[in-house]
C-alpha cells in the first residue's frame, strides 16, 4: 500500500506555499474557466431539470446552487453545479477525455460552504491537489477503452478537494479516496448517443467527492488497497499497465497540472484538431464552403469511435454536434469559425450545414495509433486533393 500511503500523505500535507507559480497559474485559469462555463451552462438543456430536482428533494441547506440560487445539501449542490459547468463542453480538459475542473471545483465549493467557509489560499490548494492527483491517475486510450475518463480518474480529484475542505485527517482521507474508487465508472456511449448523460456524469463525479468525504468523516471505510490491490484501480482500470512510478514520481514537487488544456472551440477535445485544420486551410488557401467537393478526416480508432460516426440530429442536438467531427468541420467551412452559437439547436439543424456534413468522411486508421498520431486530414477541393 505504499502508493496509497504516499498519495494520502500528499493530499493531507501539501499546502498553498508548496504550489509552483506555473501550477498555480493553471489552477487559477481552471477555476475561472469553470466559473464562466457554469454561468453560460446554467441555461443549457437539462439545467432547469436538475435544479428543480435538487430543490424538490429538499434537505439541509448546506451549499448554494450557482446562478439559479437556493441552498440544498452539499452533495446535491455539487451535482447541479457540475452538470452546469460541463454543459457546454468548453471547460478544461485532459487527453484522452477527462474533464477535471467541472467536478473538482463544484465539489470544493460545496464542501467549503458545508465547512462554514475557507480561505482563498486553502481553496486554491484543494483544487490544485485534487487536480494533480487526477492527472497522475489518468489512463491512456487503450486502458479506458470506452470508459468515460471523467468518470474514472476524476472522482479522486473531487474527493481529494472535498476532503481538504472538510479538514479530514490521513485516516479519513484514505477512506474517502478508497470509497471514491468504488464510484469510478461511466461510459462514452453517452457521448456517442448524444445524451444529456455526458453532463450528468460530470455532476455525479462532483457529488461523489462530497459524499465520500462526508462518509469517511462519519467513519465509513473503503478498501485500503484501492490502487495496488488485486482488484484495485491499477488492475481494474489500468489493465495492469499503469506504472506506480508514474503516480508518485515527483509528487508534491513536480506538478503535472500543466497537462491540462483549455479548448479553443466549444466542442469535444477530439474535434478540436479537425476544426483547427480546416479553418487553417481556408485561411491559407483562400477557399470557402462552396469550393469543397469532399473532406476526408483520417483519425485513430479511439477518435473515430467517439466522434467519427455519421452525423445525425437526435433528441439533444447540441450534444450531437459537440461530439461529431463531421458537424464541426462542416460548421467551420460554412460559418468560418466555431462559436457557442453554432452549437445551439437552430444552428445545428441548419440544412446547409447538415448537407455539407454528409460530404465529410471520417476514416479510422489503426496505423495512426502505432505512430502516436492524433489527427491527419486530407481535403478534396474542386478536384484537387490537399493533404495535411
Walk me through the topology.
Layout: H1 2-13, H2 21-41, H3 47-57, E1 63-64, E2 71-72, H4 74-86, H5 101-114, H6 120-137, H7 141-144, H8 149-165, H9 170-181, H10 189-192, H11 197-217, H12 233-236, H13 244-248, H14 269-285, E3 292-299, H15 301-307, H16 317-322, H17 325-335, H18 345-348, H19 351-357, E4 360-364, H20 366-371, E5 376-381, E6 384-387
Parallel strand pairs: 3-4
Antiparallel strand pairs: 1-2, 3-5, 5-6
Give short descriptive properties of this protein.
single chain; 388 residues; alpha+beta; two-stranded antiparallel sheet; 20 helices; 6 strands; 55% helix; 7% strand
Question: What features would you describe in this structure?
Answer:
It contains 20 helices and six strands. The chain is an alpha+beta fold and 388 residues long. It has a four-stranded mixed sheet, with helices on one face. A two-stranded antiparallel ribbon has the order 1-2. A hairpin with a 6-residue loop joins strand 1 (63-64) and strand 2. Helix 5 (101-114) packs parallel to helix 11 and helix 6 (120-137) runs antiparallel to helix 8 (149-165). The protein starts with a helix and ends with a strand. Mean pLDDT is 94; it is low at 373-385.
Amino acid at each position: 500500500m505504499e502508493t496509497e500511503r504516499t498519495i494520502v500523505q500528499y493530499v493531507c500535507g501539501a499546502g498553498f506555499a508548496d504550489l509552483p507559480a506555473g501550477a498555480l497559474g493553471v489552477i487559477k485559469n481552471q477555476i475561472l474557466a469553470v466559473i464562466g462555463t457554469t454561468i453560460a451552462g446554467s441555461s443549457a438543456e437539462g439545467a432547469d431539470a436538475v435544479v428543480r430536482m435538487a430543490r424538490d428533494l429538499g434537505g439541509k441547506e448546506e451549499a448554494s446552487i450557482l446562478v439559479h440560487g437556493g441552498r440544498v445539501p452539499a452533495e446535491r449542490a455539487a451535482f447541479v453545479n457540475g452538470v452546469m459547468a460541463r454543459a457546454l463542453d468548453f471547460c478544461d480538459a485532459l487527453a484522452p477525455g477527462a474533464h477535471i475542473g467541472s467536478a473538482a471545483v463544484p465539489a470544493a465549493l460545496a464542501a467549503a460552504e458545508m465547512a462554514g467557509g475557507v480561505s482563498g489560499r486553502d481553496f486554491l490548494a484543494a483544487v490544485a491537489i485534487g487536480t494533480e492527483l487526477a492527472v497522475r491517475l489518468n489512463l491512456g486510450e487503450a486502458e479506458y477503452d470506452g470508459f468515460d475518463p471523467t468518470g474514472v480518474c476524476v472522482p479522486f480529484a473531487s474527493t481529494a478537494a472535498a476532503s481538504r475542505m472538510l479538514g479530514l485527517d490521513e485516516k479519513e482521507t484514505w477512506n474517502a479516496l478508497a470509497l471514491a474508487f468504488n464510484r469510478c465508472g461511466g461510459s462514452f456511449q453517452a457521448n456517442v448517443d448524444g445524451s444529456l448523460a455526458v453532463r450528468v456524469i460530470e455532476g455525479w463525479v462532483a457529488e461523489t467527492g462530497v459524499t465520500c468525504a462526508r462518509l469517511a468523516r462519519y467513519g465509513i471505510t473503503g478498501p485500503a488497497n484501492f490502487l495496488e490491490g488485486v482488484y484495485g484501480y491499477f488492475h481494474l482500470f489500468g489493465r495492469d499497465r499503469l506504472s506506480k512510478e508514474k503516480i508518485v514520481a515527483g509528487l508534491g514537487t513536480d506538478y503535472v497540472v500543466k497537462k491540462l488544456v483549455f479548448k479553443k472551440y466549444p466542442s469535444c477535445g477530439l474535434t478540436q484538431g479537425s476544426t483547427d485544420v480546416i479553418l487553417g486551410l481556408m485561411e491559407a488557401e483562400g477557399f470557402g464552403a462552396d469550393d469543397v467537393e469532399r473532406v476526408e478526416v483520417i483519425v485513430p480508432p479511439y477518435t473515430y469511435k467517439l466522434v467519427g460516426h455519421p452525423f445525425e440530429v437526435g433528441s439533444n442536438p447540441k450534444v450531437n454536434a459537440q461530439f461529431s467531427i463531421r458537424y464541426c468541420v462542416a460548421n467551420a467551412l460554412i460559418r468560418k469559425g466555431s462559436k457557442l452559437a453554432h452549437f445551439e439547436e437552430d444552428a445545428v439543424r441548419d440544412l446547409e450545414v447538415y448537407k455539407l456534413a454528409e460530404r465529410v468522411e471520417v476514416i479510422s486508421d489503426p496505423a495512426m495509433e502505432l505512430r502516436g498520431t492524433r489527427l491527419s486530414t486530407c481535403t478534396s477541393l474542386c478536384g484537387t486533393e490537399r493533404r495535411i
